[in-house]
């Protein structure tokens, strides 16, 4: 029983992290159709700024968390301003490849300017403790991950449904031209979307740092690949789809972790992806994606 | 200009396809392919006759990249869907021949516990290559069935997932693939002449596909899915076709790589190769085979230069430090700048021979 609960918590925590990152991807994609491969490098910027701040003597975990989230939001907005604005109206493939290019540049800049080797960051290690509830021992990090992700998603939903800018963002994902006709600046909508996406990545970065205790140039890349898969399985561009896809991915991974014997543990990623590709055979548009016929205007 | 492929496709479908007419087109595209391959041939022959051994080795690597990029162009250029998993097929080709053709004595050292009797099997290089390509074809057919059904973005992500699946199998099925360690002892049977022949063949094949009725229809459906569907073009089938052809060309590149290098390891066929070849294709221009060739030539030379700086050069007697990551930054910058300022790449929309004939016509006026 203890073991089952522990694995359930594991799956929820993994899923929450994937959901956060996948939501960041979906917010940007739903508005401007950009497949943001550089999202992992936003996580990277956030983590490296905590590392640099720690090297300069700022070792308060509270400051580190604020810095991580703030720098991630800033990095996302800066990436948009520099790299993605020129390709804003270009076809999806152009944007995707641009983002891929940005991702390569930033990853290699970490390598060039800091180090190709992982660097230790211990500022946030305090978040990762064992809590005892009677007979149960749970990782504080996982509980926090779950709660914070839940609150963040709630805040996102409230923002999108209650505020004017949130409404504009939702409207822009359907028909950007009309939103602009209503007198809302395109740049503002897009910058806000990127800032939200970055902040979500920053929150994920805090948890990654607390768990790993180190930074490396490809820190966010693998995670973002998984988040992409979560988006695809949920239906690309759908926000609920991203959240559900992330959770499902977490459960598949932990399920495989439990089910696979130790000597096959290396195949976990391969099997996870294979299961998801197999799911796509049955639902090519994703679980929550709608089948759009050619020529449909209303999504 | 938009829709030009579509109107061509309409013309072609409406016209009674007489044997003479299609023969004519075939010859034209064959000659076009050979013209495109000409610079490659010239460079290859120059290297073959004059270059020192070190440069021959570099050139062999560049030719492998060329074949990969041409293979990538077959899918990306015609369907306009980004493929980020093609190096999986290069890896499958290379490991296929490694497992089949490595001499038994070597296998005793490297994969003594290989399943399915592979540990006691040694085939000649040609049949190994054919079987490896067959495997690549089957994997491509199965993955293509999924990918051709998905929308553009989802297809790209699934191509990435395929890369990760294949890479993780290479790493973890140690009995068969030797895992993270290098797989050595593959017979080195391919030199520059054979490489040159296959590079030219790949270029011509890519060109023939692009100009064929299927290639044209696929390009038309990439430009306007609705209009193409209205014409009765089955885009899914065509995407599958170009995916398999693209995979086979990439697989061939892998086979050739294994046969000239003699040693392979999984990390060769992972993201680094994706970055390199993708940047080459984008820089040259993915709409044309000429673009693929141009990109490889320009970036191979450029990257070699950057790598020499990266490993620390001596400028005016001062030893510069190692700059790891410099070539990666350069590749990324090339992609970003290209996409922002010239998304169609260096060579744009026209093939080399089409440019020549355009020039001639303009001069004649």
Structure characterization notes:
The complex is a heterodimer of chains A (299) and B (365). Chain A starts with a helix and ends in a 17-residue tail after the last helix. By secondary structure, chain A is mainly alpha-helical. The longest helix of chain A has 31 residues, at 2-32. Chain A is built from eleven helices and four strands. The relative contact order of chain A is 0.19. In chain A, the strands form two sheets. In chain A, strands 1-4 form a two-stranded antiparallel ribbon. Chain A has helices at 2-32, 39-55, 61-84, 92-114, 140-162, 164-172, 176-181, 186-212, 221-234, 239-259, 268-282, and strands spanning 119-120, 130-133, 136-139, 214-215. Chain A has one domain: ABC transporter involved in vitamin B12 uptake, BtuC (Orthogonal Bundle). With 365 residues, chain B is an all-alpha fold. In chain B, a hairpin with a 2-residue loop joins strand 1 and strand 2 (318-319). The interface between A and B is large, with 51 and 49 residues.
Give the number of DSSP strands of chain A: 4
**Stretches with pLDDT under 50, minimum 5 residues of chain A:** none
Beta-strand residue percentage of chain A? under 5%
The end-to-end span of chain A amounts to: 45 Å
Amount of helix of chain B: over 70%
Major sheet characteristics of chain A: 2 strands, antiparallel
Mind telling me the C-alpha Rg of chain A?
Answer: 19 Å
The major β-sheet of chain B equals:
2 strands, antiparallel
User: What is the residue-averaged pLDDT of chain A?
Assistant: 86
Q: How do the helices and strands follow one another from N- to C-terminus of chain A?
A: HHHHEEEHHHHEHHH
Low-confidence stretches of chain B: none
The CATH topology of chain A comes to ABC transporter involved in vitamin B12 uptake, BtuC
Measured by DSSP, the beta-strand proportion of chain B falls in under 5%
Can you give the mean pLDDT of chain B?
A: 84
Reading side by side through the largest sheet of chain B, how are the strands ordered? 1-2
Total tally of structural domains of chain B: 1
Query: How many structural domains in the coordinates of chain A?
Result: 1
Number of strands of chain B: 2
InterPro entries (chain A): ABC_transp_permease (IPR001851), BCAA_transport_permease (IPR052157)
Subcellular location (chain A): Cell membrane
Membrane topology (chain A): Multi-pass membrane protein
Organism (chain A): Mesorhizobium plurifarium
């Amino acid at each position: 029983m203890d073991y089952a609960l522990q694995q359930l918590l594991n799956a929820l925590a993994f899923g929450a992290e994937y959901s956060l990152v996948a939501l960041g991807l979906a917010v940007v994609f739903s508005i401007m159709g950009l497949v943001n491969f550089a999202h992992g490098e936003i996580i990277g910027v956030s983590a490296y700024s905590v590392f640099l701040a720690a090297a300069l003597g700022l070792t308060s975990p509270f400051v580190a968390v604020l810095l991580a989230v703030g720098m991630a939001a800033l990095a996302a907005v800066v990436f948009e301003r520099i790299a993605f604005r020129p390709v804003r109206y270009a076809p999806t493939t152009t944007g995707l490849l641009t983002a891929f290019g940005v991702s390569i540049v930033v990853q290699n800049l970490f390598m060039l300017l800091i180090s190709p080797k992982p660097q230790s960051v211990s500022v946030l290690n305090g978040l990762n403790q064992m809590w005892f509830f009677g007979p149960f021992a749970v990782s504080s990090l996982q509980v926090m991950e779950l709660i914070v992700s839940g609150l963040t998603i709630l805040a996102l939903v409230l923002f999108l449904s209650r505020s004017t800018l949130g409404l504009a963002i939702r409207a822009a994902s359907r028909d950007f031209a009309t939103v602009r006709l209503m007198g809302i600046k395109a740049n503002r909508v897009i910058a806000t979307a990127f800032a939200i996406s970055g902040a979500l990545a920053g929150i994920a970065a805090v948890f990654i740092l607390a768990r790993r205790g180190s930074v490396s140039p490809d820190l966010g890349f693998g995670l973002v690949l998984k988040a992409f898969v979560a988006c695809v399985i949920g239906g690309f561009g759908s926000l609920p789809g991203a959240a559900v896809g992330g959770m499902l991915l977490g459960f598949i991974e932990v399920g495989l972790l439990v089910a696979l014997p130790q000597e096959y543990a290396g195949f976990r990623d391969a099997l996870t992806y294979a299961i998801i590709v197999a799911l796509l055979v049955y639902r090519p548009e994703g679980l929550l994606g709608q089948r759009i016929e050619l020529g449909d205007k209303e999504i | 200009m938009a829709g030009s492929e579509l109107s061509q496709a309409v013309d072609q479908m409406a016209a009674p396809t007489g044997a003479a007419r299609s023969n004519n087109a075939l010859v034209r595209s064959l000659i076009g392919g050979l013209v495109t391959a000409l610079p490659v041939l010239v460079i290859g022959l120059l290297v073959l006759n004059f270059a020192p051994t070190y440069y021959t080795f570099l050139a062999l690597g560049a030719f492998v990249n060329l074949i990969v990029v041409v293979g990538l162009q077959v899918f990306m250029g015609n369907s306009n869907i980004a493929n980020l998993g093609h190096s999986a097929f290069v890896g499958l080709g290379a490991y296929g021949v490694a497992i089949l053709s490595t001499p038994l004595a070597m296998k005793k050292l490297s994969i003594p516990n290989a399943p399915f009797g592979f540990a006691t099997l040694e085939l000649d290089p040609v049949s190994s290559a054919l079987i490896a390509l067959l495997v690549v074809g089957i994997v491509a057919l199965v993955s293509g069935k999924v990918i051709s059904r998905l929308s553009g973005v989802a297809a790209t992500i699934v191509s990435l997932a395929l890369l990760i699946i294949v890479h993780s199998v290479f790493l973890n099925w140690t009995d068969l693939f030797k895992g993270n360690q290098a797989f050595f002892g593959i017979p080195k049977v391919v030199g520059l002449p054979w490489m040159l022949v296959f590079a030219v063949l790949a270029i011509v094949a890519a060109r023939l596909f692009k100009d064929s009725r299927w290639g044209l229809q696929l390009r038309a459906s990439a430009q306007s899915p609705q209009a193409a569907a209205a014409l009765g073009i089955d885009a899914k089938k065509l995407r599958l076709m170009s995916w398999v052809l693209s995979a086979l060309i990439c697989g061939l590149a892998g086979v050739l790589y294994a046969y000239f290098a003699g040693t392979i390891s999984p990390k060769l066929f992972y993201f680094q190769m994706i970055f390199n070849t993708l940047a080459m294709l984008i820089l040259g221009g993915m709409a044309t085979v000429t673009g693929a060739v141009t990109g490889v030539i320009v970036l191979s030379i450029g990257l070699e230069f950057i790598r020499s700086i990266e490993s620390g050069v001596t400028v005016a007697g001062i030893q510069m430090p190692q700059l790891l990551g410099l070539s990666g930054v350069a590749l990324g910058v090339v992609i970003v700048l290209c996409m922002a300022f010239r998304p169609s790449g260096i060579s744009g929309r026209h093939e080399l021979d089409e440019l020549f004939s355009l020039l001639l016509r303009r001069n004649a006026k």
